[in-house]
Structure formats: C-alpha cells, structure tokens
C-alpha cells in the first residue's frame, strides 16, 4: 500500500515465562513469530515487562537466550535493523524497572531515524544494537521509575516507563512501554471503586502523561502500550455474579480468611480470598462471548477520556491465565479476569493511521489464546501509519475531526541534526481539555 507502513505494536508481561524457561521461552516465541508471519508488518515494536521473571536474580541469565531466539528466527531474517533496550541491573533498586523494548525494522524501510534524548536530534538507524544490563547512560531512550511515594506500602517496586522516539518515512511518534501497579488483595479491591489500587494507577499514569506534555522535548503523537494492570470493578462483578445468594465468612485467627456465596439450594457459587476468586463455573463464565459482559466493569480508562484513545476491544481479558503448559486457555482462579495489557494512543497518534472503518488493516487482539503464554497473554495492535508523503492527509484528518475547535499554526522551529541537515518542526495547536494538543510533523531540508 503506497504511502503506508504496516506497524505491529505488542505488549507482553513475560515474567512467568522465565519461571520455566526450558519450556516456556520456546512456546512463547513460536506463537509470537507465528503472529509476525501472519500479520506481515514492516516495523515491529515489542514492549515487555518483568523481563527476567519475578525471581530475576536467578532467571535474568535466560534473557540473553530469549533475545537470541528472536533475533536468529527465520521470521525476522529480513529485519536488518534492530534496537533492543533491556533494563537488567537489579542491583540498582532506585533505577531498575525490568522493562524491555525490542524494535525490528524491515529492510524495505530506508528512512528510519531514532531520537537521541541528550542531543535532542535524530540519527539514522542501521545495524543491530542490543543495550542490556545497566542502560542508564544510553541516550536513545528515556527511562524512569515512578516516584517512591507512589509505591504502595512505601517500598520499591519495578514500575515505571521506557520511551523511545522514532521517525519512519518522515512520520514522527513516541513508543512508550509502561508498567503500573497491581492489585495486592481482592478484599481491598472490592471495598470501593475506584479502589486504592486504581487510584494509585491513575496517579502514576497522570504523572507520566503530564511529564511528557511538559518536558523539554517537542510534543509528538505517542503510542503507550504495556501492562497497565487495569482491573474491572471488583465489587460490581461480585454483585453481578452473586445475585440471590447468601454471604458467609470463613473464620481465621485474623477475623476471616475467605468469603463464600451460596445460592438458595446451598450450592457454593463463589469463593473470595485475598488471592482467590473462584466461581463454580469459572471458565464458562469468563470465556463466554470473549468475556464481553465484563466490559461494562472495565472503567479505569474513563478518567483519561480525551487524553488516551483505544481501538475497540473484542478479545478475552488478557489476565490471569494459567501458567500450566497444558491449561493455556484457562483462567487462574485468583483474580477477576481483566484487560491489564493494552495498546493506547494519544489523540494525535490516531490521526497518523486510517480510520478502522476505512481500512481492514487495523487489528487489535491477543496472541496465543489457546496456548500457554504465561499469566498474561500478549496484546497487539496492527495498524498502518501514513508516511510523510501523505502528510497532508494527516492534517486533513486533524482538520476534519477537530475543525470546530480553534487552531493556530506556530512559526516553524529548526533543530540541527548531527548529519548537518536541519529538521523543521511545525506545531498545530488545538484547544482540548483545557490544554493545547500539539500535532507534530517534520520535514528535513
């Protein structure tokens, strides 16, 4: 398709596949590569969380094997440009995020640039570079952990973001890997909505978006994909599943250990513990119609309406799946299934791709629905990006969608690149949600 670049964006929490690396790394990689072969992208961005696993001191050594599996595969043979960023230095608690960003660029893409956050300029991408271990000094990425006071119970956690900036055929955008806080207890999660965990996630995400909006670099469209740990409204789901039941508490030394819900015939319907959520028809209930009945309880993104967009979800909740290799299509009975793993877009990023209604090239789904991929199924978005040759269409998208809002074009700003060329940046400012949204485009002269 002339003027378009097929792009595949994938987020994958890979922590549990490192718990049994002898089996899981190969199974996971086979499903991942089969998806690459089927969707035939020319630019692949894979954002991983929990690289090295939960016991990273012991299993971080398997990460190198994982990287080799990907880079030596037949499916990626024609991707001659590779950039990998692996935050592996677990000895540095104040910096360690266990995030890993993998980028594979097809040989057919010639005009590919990567932003240097120190030099504030783009440089051409060629060859294959893997940055691993302690990557604090690598300037072609930006990485940060959330402030310590964001962490529940005031202890360090591996939560933060890892950002890169790209120019592909003249189209400029950010790709951001993010990992937000999880739910530690079902009892706490069910107390109210939003739960204390949801509020912590919202605070961290607002902090991140505000940081990008107000930082020293030009604002550009961005794709934000990672493990958001978004959860469904636990209290609402429990109420839905336990209509016409009686609640009872199982006693323990510390008040009670579990809640049980029985129907009028005294059949056990639901058991709830700190880390247990077990319905008597668990798989059937949450697999029914791809779990779409749960969508009304998937509400954490509501707070970011107008700031973050998402293509329609028509796939199963991505978490928590069984980690048993023989039960890859079943949910663990620990949490309410939820769409933890997402691919989100800024409003300006949406204008870089044709509308879903105008193209069959948009596909949003999960990888390995019947294969064990760990407790999280990878989630992917396959889109096509407009190239700079179709830049006028980008502006037409913006004008058509936002013509009712006041807009003005600022004077061009020139940034000198390391190769002696000049990049002219133009910003279209559009009033939205009490703050301007900047549409970023570049041309090189």
From TrEMBL:
Keyword Hydrolase set for record: yes
Record's keyword annotation contains Hydrolase: yes
Highest taxon of the lineage: Eukaryota
Inositol polyphosphate-related phosphatase domain: residues covered: 3-390
Class of the enzyme per the UniProt entry, highest EC level: hydrolase
InterPro entries according to UniProt: Endo/exonu/phosph_ase_sf (IPR036691), INPP5A (IPR039737), IPPc (IPR000300)
The protein's Enzyme Commission number: 3.1.3.56
Sorted UniProt keywords: Hydrolase
Similarity comment: family membership: Belongs to the inositol 1,4,5-trisphosphate 5-phosphatase type I family.
Designated name of the protein: inositol-polyphosphate 5-phosphatase
Native source organism of the sequence: Neodiprion lecontei (Redheaded pine sawfly)
Gene that encodes the chain: LOC107221520
């Amino acid at each position: 398709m002339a003027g378009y670049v097929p792009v595949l964006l994938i987020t994958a929490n890979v922590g549990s596949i490192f718990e049994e690396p002898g089996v899981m790394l190969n199974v996971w990689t086979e499903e991942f590569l089969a998806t690459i072969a089927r969707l035939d992208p020319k630019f692949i961005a894979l954002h991983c969380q929990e690289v090295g696993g939960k016991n990273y001191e012991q299993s971080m050594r398997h990460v190198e094997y994982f990287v080799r599996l990907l880079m030596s595969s037949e499916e990626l043979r024609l991707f001659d440009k590779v950039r990998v960023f692996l935050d592996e230095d677990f000895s540095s608690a104040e910096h360690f995020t266990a995030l890993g960003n993998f980028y594979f660029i097809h040989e057919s893409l010639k005009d590919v640039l990567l932003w240097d956050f120190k030099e504030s300029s783009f440089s051409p991408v060629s060859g294959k570079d893997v940055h691993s271990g302690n990557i604090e000094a690598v300037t072609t990425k930006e990485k940060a952990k959330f402030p310590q006071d964001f962490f529940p119970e005031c202890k360090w956690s591996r939560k933060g973001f890892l950002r890169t900036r790209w120019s592909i055929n003249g189209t400029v955008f950010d790709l951001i890997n993010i990992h937000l806080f999880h739910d530690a207890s079902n009892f706490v999660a069910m107390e109210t909505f939003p739960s204390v965990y949801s509020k912590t996630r919202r605070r961290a995400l607002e902090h991140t978006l505000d940081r990008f909006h107000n930082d020293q670099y030009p604002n550009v469209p961005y794709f934000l994909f990672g493990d958001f740990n978004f959860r469904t409204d636990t209290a609402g789901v429990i109420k839905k599943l336990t209509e016409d039941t009686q609640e009872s508490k199982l006693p323990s030394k510390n008040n009670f250990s579990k809640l049980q819900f029985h129907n009028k015939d005294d059949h056990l319907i639901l058991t709830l513990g700190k880390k247990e959520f077990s319905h008597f028809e668990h798989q059937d209930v949450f697999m029914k119609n791809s779990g779409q009945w749960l969508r009304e309880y998937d509400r954490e993104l509501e707070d970011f309406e107008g700031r973050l967009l998402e293509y329609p979800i028509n796939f199963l909740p991505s978490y928590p799946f069984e980690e048993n290799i023989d039960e890859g299509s079943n949910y663990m009975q620990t949490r309410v299934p939820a769409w933890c793993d997402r691919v989100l877009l800024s409003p300006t990023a949406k204008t870089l791709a044709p509308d879903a209604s105008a193209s069959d090239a948009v596909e949003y789904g999960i990888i390995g629905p019947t294969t064990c991929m760990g407790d999280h199924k990878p989630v992917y978005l396959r889109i096509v990006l407009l190239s700079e040759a179709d830049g006028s269409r980008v502006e037409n998208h913006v004008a058509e969608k936002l013509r009712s809002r006041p807009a003005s074009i600022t004077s061009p700003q020139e940034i000198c690149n390391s190769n002696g060329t000049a990049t002219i940046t133009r910003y279209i400012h559009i009033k939205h949600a009490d703050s301007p949204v900047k549409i970023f485009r570049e041309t090189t002269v």
